[in-house]
Amino acid sequence: TLRRVCSASIKKQQQDVLGFLEANKIEFEEKDIAANEENRKWMRENVPEDSRPASGNPLPPRLFNDSRYLGDYEAFFEARENNAVYAFLGLTAPPGSKVDALLVSSLQSHSALF
């Protein structure tokens, strides 16, 4: 059924985000909204109006840095594809990361122009 497909898609997206965070040793706190009404209410109240679906409630995964809303899975995926996840998460990229290498490369190419 459609509900089962949607649930499987949400689970895959959640695993994708968690896997990335764990692999990159980024500290996070996972909040289960399926089993905890308080977490579900908090998420619904803290997703900005312009980031909510036209009808119904916002679906997970949703990412926050403390109480600051960062975005949904699509925003996370786009940031990851553009090697901009640390900026998306509001974090500084660690030395030696792809983002750090891109920044150095970008700075080197800019310095060659001057």
TrEMBL record:
Q: What does this protein do?
A: Appears to function as an adapter protein that bridges proteins together or proteins with mRNAs. May function as a ubiquitin ligase-substrate adapter. Additionally, associates with translating cytoplasmic ribosomes and may promote the expression of specific mRNAs.
The name this protein carries in UniProt is: SH3 domain-binding glutamic acid-rich-like protein
Query: GO CC terms on record?
Result: cytosol; plasma membrane
Reading the lineage from the top rank, the first entry is Eukaryota
Q: Which InterPro entries match?
A: Glut_rich_SH3-bd, SH3BGR, Thioredoxin-like_sf
Keyword set for this entry? Cell membrane, Cytoplasm, Membrane, SH3-binding
Q: Which Gene3D superfamilies match?
A: Glutaredoxin
Q: Where in the cell is it found?
A: Cell membrane; Cytoplasm, Cytosol
Which terms in the Gene Ontology molecular function aspect does this entry carry?
Answer: SH3 domain binding
Record note on quaternary structure: Monomer. Interacts with PFN1/Profilin-1. Interacts with ERBB2. Interacts with ATG12. Interacts with BECN1. Interacts with translating ribosomes.
Species this protein is from: Bubo bubo
UniProt key word Cell membrane: yes
- To which protein family does this belong? Belongs to the SH3BGR family.
Instruction: State a single Pfam family of this protein.
Output: SH3BGR
